[in-house]
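Please, structure for the following, as tokens.
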Amino acid sequence: MELKRFVVNPVQVNCYLIWDESKEALLIDCAACFIRERRSILEFITSNGLTIKHHLNTHLHFDHILGNAFIEETFGIKSEANDADWSWAEHVKERAARFGVKYEETIPALGRILNEGDEVTFGTHRIKVIAVPGHSPGSLVFYIPEENVLFSGDTIFHGSIGRTDFPDSDHYRFITEIRNKLLTLPEETIVYPGHDRETTIGFEKAYNMYLR
């Protein structure tokens, strides 16, 4: 499996492009809102002969969905996520403005609604969907066991966790879900978060002060 990270929009979201030898690919949190970001992503996909099969959102906070309209218009596919966060998508312009981000597009309706235990396939790979509510009600992570990789969205970061001070957050549930569902994964699992640098499950078990 191959991976390319793009850091996009003013909130510095990690957009991940992954693919395998079949040239089938998917994007995770492609929240590009500037023309130059979108052009860079499209040029990389085109120059490598990739076919985008899916766009997955780890959750629907405004900074992670600013490219959903671009994805649908460019690749003809609908974004896939859990819909428990849909109010964030409905009010994306106001939410973005609170963080100083001007956004004029409308977020398209989701395609497939993803839930705990679902699988998403591309090429020869299967991605397991794991629900980790707390940062937001609909937060998901995407796990590929055979590659030992986890795309964690805003659940686990290097030495930290996602915010739980939003009105629909639940701190106690969040910590419980992370401990029960993520820290039980193999310690060598590489964690690719929604912001900042990657980490591992083993490192977070040993050193993440929020999860002790």
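The first helix runs from residue 35 to 47. Helices lie at 35-47, 68-75, 86-90, 92-98, 171-182, 201-207.
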